Amino acid sequence: MKKYLFIAVLFLALGTISKAQFKILNAYDNSTITNTTINVYGNPVNAMGVTFYIVNSGGVPISLYSRRDSISLLTWDTNNYFCWATLCYPSSTNVSTYDETVNPGDTSKTITSPDFYTHFDPGGKIGTSTIRYTFYNASNHADSNWVLVNYITTPAGIATVSDKSINFSSLYPNPAGSSVNFNYNLAAGVSSANLKIFNMLGECIQTITLNASKNKATVNVQAIPSGIYICELEANGCQPAYQKLIVSR
Fold first, then answer.
1. Selection from 51, 41, 239 nearest residue 152 by Cα
2. In terms of CB atoms within 10 Å, which of 118, 151, 211, 217 comes out highest?
3. Has residue 83 got a pLDDT over 90?
4. Domain count, the chain
Protein backbone atom coordinates (compact mmCIF):
# COMPACT_ATOMS: atom_id res chain seq x y z
CA MET A 1 0.00 0.00 0.00
CA LYS A 2 2.85 2.38 0.88
CA LYS A 3 4.45 1.64 -2.48
CA TYR A 4 1.31 2.57 -4.42
CA LEU A 5 0.84 5.65 -2.25
CA PHE A 6 4.43 6.70 -3.03
CA ILE A 7 3.86 6.21 -6.76
CA ALA A 8 0.64 8.23 -6.63
CA VAL A 9 2.40 11.06 -4.79
CA LEU A 10 5.28 10.91 -7.28
CA PHE A 11 2.94 11.22 -10.28
CA LEU A 12 1.16 14.11 -8.59
CA ALA A 13 4.48 15.84 -7.98
CA LEU A 14 5.61 15.32 -11.58
CA GLY A 15 2.33 16.65 -12.85
CA THR A 16 2.79 19.75 -10.71
CA ILE A 17 6.36 20.24 -11.93
CA SER A 18 5.42 19.91 -15.61
CA LYS A 19 2.57 22.38 -15.36
CA ALA A 20 3.67 25.63 -16.99
CA GLN A 21 3.95 28.63 -14.69
CA PHE A 22 2.92 31.15 -17.32
CA LYS A 23 -0.14 31.89 -19.44
CA ILE A 24 -0.72 33.33 -22.90
CA LEU A 25 -3.08 36.26 -23.44
CA ASN A 26 -4.58 37.67 -26.62
CA ALA A 27 -3.29 41.25 -26.72
CA TYR A 28 -6.51 42.40 -28.42
CA ASP A 29 -8.82 41.73 -25.46
CA ASN A 30 -6.51 40.23 -22.79
CA SER A 31 -8.41 36.93 -22.94
CA THR A 32 -6.52 33.78 -21.92
CA ILE A 33 -5.71 31.63 -24.96
CA THR A 34 -3.28 29.18 -23.36
CA ASN A 35 -3.31 25.82 -25.18
CA THR A 36 -6.29 26.79 -27.34
CA THR A 37 -7.05 27.38 -31.03
CA ILE A 38 -7.90 30.83 -32.37
CA ASN A 39 -9.03 31.97 -35.82
CA VAL A 40 -7.67 35.01 -37.63
CA TYR A 41 -9.64 36.15 -40.68
CA GLY A 42 -8.47 38.18 -43.65
CA ASN A 43 -8.40 38.40 -47.41
CA PRO A 44 -5.84 36.79 -49.72
CA VAL A 45 -4.01 39.99 -50.65
CA ASN A 46 -3.33 41.35 -47.15
CA ALA A 47 -0.88 40.22 -44.50
CA MET A 48 -2.43 38.96 -41.27
CA GLY A 49 -1.19 38.54 -37.73
CA VAL A 50 -1.95 38.37 -34.03
CA THR A 51 -0.19 39.58 -30.88
CA PHE A 52 0.27 37.51 -27.71
CA TYR A 53 1.19 38.64 -24.20
CA ILE A 54 3.06 36.22 -21.96
CA VAL A 55 2.28 36.55 -18.23
CA ASN A 56 4.41 34.87 -15.60
CA SER A 57 1.99 33.39 -13.06
CA GLY A 58 4.74 31.86 -10.91
CA GLY A 59 6.90 33.28 -8.15
CA VAL A 60 10.29 33.34 -9.89
CA PRO A 61 11.55 34.79 -13.18
CA ILE A 62 11.43 32.50 -16.20
CA SER A 63 13.33 32.59 -19.49
CA LEU A 64 11.25 31.50 -22.46
CA TYR A 65 12.07 30.47 -26.01
CA SER A 66 9.44 30.54 -28.77
CA ARG A 67 8.92 28.01 -31.56
CA ARG A 68 6.83 27.98 -34.73
CA ASP A 69 5.47 24.76 -36.24
CA SER A 70 3.63 24.88 -39.58
CA ILE A 71 0.84 22.31 -39.33
CA SER A 72 -0.68 22.98 -42.75
CA LEU A 73 -0.05 25.74 -45.27
CA LEU A 74 -1.96 26.76 -48.39
CA THR A 75 1.32 26.80 -50.28
CA TRP A 76 4.86 25.88 -49.34
CA ASP A 77 6.21 29.35 -50.11
CA THR A 78 3.75 31.22 -47.88
CA ASN A 79 5.65 34.10 -46.26
CA ASN A 80 5.25 33.97 -42.49
CA TYR A 81 7.48 34.87 -39.57
CA PHE A 82 7.31 35.85 -35.90
CA CYS A 83 8.68 38.56 -33.63
CA TRP A 84 9.64 37.68 -30.06
CA ALA A 85 10.05 40.77 -27.86
CA THR A 86 12.24 43.23 -29.82
CA LEU A 87 13.56 40.83 -32.46
CA CYS A 88 11.81 39.73 -35.65
CA TYR A 89 13.13 36.47 -37.10
CA PRO A 90 13.36 35.62 -40.82
CA SER A 91 10.79 33.27 -42.32
CA SER A 92 13.38 30.47 -42.34
CA THR A 93 13.69 30.51 -38.52
CA ASN A 94 11.39 28.24 -36.53
CA VAL A 95 12.94 28.59 -33.05
CA SER A 96 13.95 31.89 -31.47
CA THR A 97 17.70 32.34 -31.17
CA TYR A 98 17.38 34.16 -27.87
CA ASP A 99 15.23 33.58 -24.82
CA GLU A 100 13.17 36.28 -23.14
CA THR A 101 13.06 36.67 -19.34
CA VAL A 102 9.63 37.34 -17.84
CA ASN A 103 9.42 38.35 -14.19
CA PRO A 104 6.59 37.20 -11.88
CA GLY A 105 3.34 38.95 -12.77
CA ASP A 106 4.94 40.78 -15.68
CA THR A 107 4.99 40.44 -19.43
CA SER A 108 7.90 40.96 -21.80
CA LYS A 109 6.12 43.88 -23.47
CA THR A 110 8.30 46.81 -24.51
CA ILE A 111 7.27 50.28 -25.58
CA THR A 112 7.45 49.80 -29.34
CA SER A 113 7.33 46.02 -29.74
CA PRO A 114 4.78 43.37 -28.85
CA ASP A 115 5.56 40.37 -26.67
CA PHE A 116 5.01 38.00 -29.56
CA TYR A 117 3.72 39.07 -32.95
CA THR A 118 2.91 36.74 -35.84
CA HIS A 119 3.01 37.77 -39.50
CA PHE A 120 1.30 35.68 -42.16
CA ASP A 121 1.05 36.57 -45.85
CA PRO A 122 -1.42 34.27 -47.67
CA GLY A 123 0.15 35.11 -51.04
CA GLY A 124 -3.22 35.49 -52.77
CA LYS A 125 -4.41 32.02 -51.74
CA ILE A 126 -7.92 31.33 -50.40
CA GLY A 127 -8.36 28.81 -47.60
CA THR A 128 -6.96 27.98 -44.15
CA SER A 129 -3.36 27.70 -42.98
CA THR A 130 -2.61 26.42 -39.48
CA ILE A 131 0.48 27.26 -37.43
CA ARG A 132 1.26 26.35 -33.82
CA TYR A 133 3.31 28.70 -31.65
CA THR A 134 4.93 27.18 -28.55
CA PHE A 135 6.67 28.89 -25.65
CA TYR A 136 8.92 26.84 -23.39
CA ASN A 137 11.15 27.38 -20.37
CA ALA A 138 14.84 27.53 -21.27
CA SER A 139 15.77 25.48 -18.17
CA ASN A 140 12.79 23.08 -18.24
CA HIS A 141 11.32 22.31 -21.66
CA ALA A 142 8.38 20.53 -20.01
CA ASP A 143 7.31 23.94 -18.74
CA SER A 144 5.59 24.94 -21.99
CA ASN A 145 2.36 26.28 -23.46
CA TRP A 146 1.12 26.79 -27.01
CA VAL A 147 -1.46 28.50 -29.21
CA LEU A 148 -2.76 27.09 -32.50
CA VAL A 149 -3.67 29.78 -35.04
CA ASN A 150 -5.89 29.22 -38.07
CA TYR A 151 -5.27 31.90 -40.70
CA ILE A 152 -8.48 31.93 -42.74
CA THR A 153 -8.71 33.85 -46.02
CA THR A 154 -11.96 34.35 -47.94
CA PRO A 155 -12.78 35.87 -51.35
CA ALA A 156 -14.46 38.87 -49.73
CA GLY A 157 -12.38 42.00 -49.92
CA ILE A 158 -10.12 40.99 -52.80
CA ALA A 159 -8.77 44.18 -54.30
CA THR A 160 -9.60 45.07 -57.87
CA VAL A 161 -6.38 45.56 -59.79
CA SER A 162 -6.31 48.61 -62.01
CA ASP A 163 -3.87 51.12 -63.41
CA LYS A 164 -5.12 53.75 -60.97
CA SER A 165 -3.01 54.26 -57.90
CA ILE A 166 -3.04 55.87 -54.48
CA ASN A 167 0.05 57.51 -53.02
CA PHE A 168 0.09 56.93 -49.26
CA SER A 169 3.03 58.31 -47.27
CA SER A 170 4.53 56.79 -44.14
CA LEU A 171 2.65 57.54 -40.93
CA TYR A 172 4.12 60.03 -38.49
CA PRO A 173 4.69 59.92 -35.62
CA ASN A 174 4.80 56.12 -35.53
CA PRO A 175 4.49 54.85 -32.81
CA ALA A 176 1.65 57.28 -32.14
CA GLY A 177 0.17 58.26 -28.79
CA SER A 178 -2.74 60.61 -29.46
CA SER A 179 -2.79 61.29 -33.22
CA VAL A 180 -1.09 60.22 -36.43
CA ASN A 181 -0.52 62.14 -39.68
CA PHE A 182 0.00 61.11 -43.28
CA ASN A 183 0.06 62.57 -46.78
CA TYR A 184 -1.86 61.15 -49.72
CA ASN A 185 -2.70 61.72 -53.37
CA LEU A 186 -5.65 60.14 -55.16
CA ALA A 187 -5.70 59.16 -58.82
CA ALA A 188 -7.34 61.47 -61.34
CA GLY A 189 -11.10 61.09 -61.36
CA VAL A 190 -11.27 59.80 -57.78
CA SER A 191 -13.10 62.30 -55.60
CA SER A 192 -12.92 60.58 -52.23
CA ALA A 193 -11.37 57.66 -50.39
CA ASN A 194 -11.55 55.91 -47.04
CA LEU A 195 -8.85 55.18 -44.53
CA LYS A 196 -9.66 52.03 -42.56
CA ILE A 197 -7.79 50.89 -39.47
CA PHE A 198 -7.75 47.14 -38.80
CA ASN A 199 -6.64 45.34 -35.66
CA MET A 200 -4.64 42.12 -35.72
CA LEU A 201 -7.85 40.08 -35.85
CA GLY A 202 -8.74 41.67 -39.18
CA GLU A 203 -11.56 43.74 -37.67
CA CYS A 204 -12.09 47.29 -38.93
CA ILE A 205 -12.18 49.50 -35.84
CA GLN A 206 -12.21 52.94 -37.46
CA THR A 207 -13.07 54.46 -40.86
CA ILE A 208 -12.17 58.01 -41.95
CA THR A 209 -13.40 59.62 -45.18
CA LEU A 210 -10.75 61.52 -47.14
CA ASN A 211 -11.26 64.27 -49.72
CA ALA A 212 -9.35 64.42 -52.99
CA SER A 213 -9.02 68.20 -52.68
CA LYS A 214 -6.70 67.73 -49.71
CA ASN A 215 -3.45 65.83 -49.45
CA LYS A 216 -2.87 65.58 -45.71
CA ALA A 217 -4.90 64.06 -42.88
CA THR A 218 -4.65 63.75 -39.11
CA VAL A 219 -6.32 60.84 -37.33
CA ASN A 220 -7.14 60.83 -33.62
CA VAL A 221 -6.07 57.49 -32.11
CA GLN A 222 -6.69 58.28 -28.43
CA ALA A 223 -9.60 55.83 -28.31
CA ILE A 224 -7.53 53.00 -29.83
CA PRO A 225 -5.78 50.65 -27.37
CA SER A 226 -2.01 50.29 -27.57
CA GLY A 227 -1.00 47.69 -30.13
CA ILE A 228 -0.20 47.07 -33.78
CA TYR A 229 -2.67 47.97 -36.54
CA ILE A 230 -2.89 47.99 -40.34
CA CYS A 231 -4.11 51.13 -42.12
CA GLU A 232 -5.74 50.63 -45.51
CA LEU A 233 -6.34 53.52 -47.89
CA GLU A 234 -8.98 52.53 -50.44
CA ALA A 235 -10.92 54.19 -53.26
CA ASN A 236 -13.20 52.84 -55.96
CA GLY A 237 -11.28 51.44 -58.92
CA CYS A 238 -7.89 51.80 -57.23
CA GLN A 239 -5.47 49.32 -55.78
CA PRO A 240 -5.50 49.81 -51.96
CA ALA A 241 -2.38 51.03 -50.18
CA TYR A 242 -1.27 49.92 -46.72
CA GLN A 243 0.79 51.18 -43.82
CA LYS A 244 1.60 49.63 -40.43
CA LEU A 245 0.58 51.67 -37.37
CA ILE A 246 1.82 51.21 -33.80
CA VAL A 247 -0.17 52.85 -31.00
CA SER A 248 1.84 53.15 -27.79
CA ARG A 249 1.29 55.08 -24.56
1. 41
2. 151
3. no
4. 2
